[in-house]
Write a structure and sequence with these properties.
The structure holds two protein chains of two kinds.
Chain A (H helix, E strand, L loop, with lengths): L5 H6 L1 H8 L2 E3 L10 H5 L11 E3 L7 E5 L4 H13 L5 E5 L2 H4 L21 E3 L6 H17 L4 H7 L1 H12 L12
Parallel strand pairs in A: 1-2, 3-4, 4-5
Helix pairs in contact in A: 2-6
Chain B lengths: L1 H32 L9 H11 L7 H19 L15 H8 L1 H13 L2 H32 L4 H7 L13 H15 L10 H4 L10 H25 L6 H21 L5 H26 L1
Helix pairs in contact in B: 1-3, 1-10, 1-11, 2-10, 3-4, 3-5, 3-10, 5-6, 6-8, 6-12, 8-10, 8-12, 10-11
Classes of the chains: A alpha/beta, B mainly alpha.
Chain lengths: 182, 297
Amino acid sequence: MDRNQIAKWLKEPGKMGQKYSLWATYFCTGCGIIEVPPVITARWDAERFGVIPVSSPRQANLFMITGFVTLKTLKAIIRTYELMPEPKYTVGFGSCPINGGMYWDSYNTIKHLDKYIPIDGWIAGCMPRPEAIFIAVTHLWTLIDKGMADGYIRYRENYRYYRRNQEMVLGKLEWPPLYPVD
Amino acid sequence: MWVKAVEIIVSPILAFVIGLFFMGLARKITARIHWRYGPPITQPLIDVIKLFTQRSVSHGLLFDMGVILSLAGSIALVLFIPFGGICPLESSGGLLVILYLMLLIPLGLALSGGEGANPNISIGISRKLMLSLGYEVPFLLAVLAIMTHYHTISAVDVVRAQEGFRWALFSWPLVLPGLAYLMILPAMLGLRPFEVVQAPQEIASGPMVEYGGKYLALVQIEHALAVFVTIALFVDLFLGGASNPFFFFLKMCVIFLLGMFVNAVFPRFRIEQAVRFLWRWPTALAFVGLVFTLLAR
């Protein structure tokens, strides 16, 4: 550990803990997940950054959407995101969640993921290299440090907007609203 | 009087620190065996701090109480374990109390998991109870052999009888229950050949699947204490304890590293293979050891 971080640890232990222990939920959409097994295993070893995959959304606080999002997957993404405990961070991985990518004219993928759930950061590229994930993690550390990784707060405050967009593409949702909408 | 009070407060904290150190060491050593760099050794502490700051979802009163019961059971258990000359509650109960209190840990988690109502929890809990059925039999036989050989039910007296390198693991016939205990240690710790309970790839970490935030932090602390208790009990019963906490800690490290080396390279048993193994070799060894102990009296 860096010596100049000790003061930070004493001042804000919660924030430092959230920075250095990002648990990512096992969730794969599209082809981007093929870059994740090398990242978490021996070749690139994400564990030295404190990033480990966990198998339940209840335990996770990092959500990576890896690749194109079909309407069916979007439903699962929203439910998984709402199950995760706050504070939670989302990262869109690859071009497709940003603007549709090569599926820009497809009839059943969504084009802009941040209309449906809040995104804290993007990794552009098709495919991004595994190193890009580590750059994203260090950027996320900076954002958490400055209090700018506030996707979960935006979701709570603008829940009507997100819920309306979700219902626009998915029709009637079969689960009740997470926050009151009126 | 005051010394006793300080010991009662300090020993669970010491057990928590040592348990977390072991969990960090486990991740680091597994990483080195996989030729990775691995997380910092303080990573479990960072995880626990983070988990305490998260908002968590409860599923009802029993869900909360089961976790607390399990944690309370393991804290009470620590007080009965002699730790290199420190034993806060040495005069009361001894090994029989330890045997009873060890049941509270899976029972608390089972109680809490029943309220969680997730199918993965039911599978995990039934696997946990099945596995403890497997390792309790050789464990009880081994402890019974120790109690018969030393004519006492007090853990402190067992440690005292082994002073001066008369360790039970290197004496006839107690070497047989000692080896049996060594074989069931991975099952009691939930390490890899017997990691059937929280198999993340099969049943999404089993009993832990509904725990998030503060609940998971409490379960992590409970797991750290359970790791401490299981290894400390082996060191007390078969390796003669130690005269001061430092040597005790060294002995615990050796035993834990043996478990880790097995954990890092072996795949997982299925549940019926695990129970078949546990009821065959460790049980046979412990039973033969008990019979020889009775004949030698």
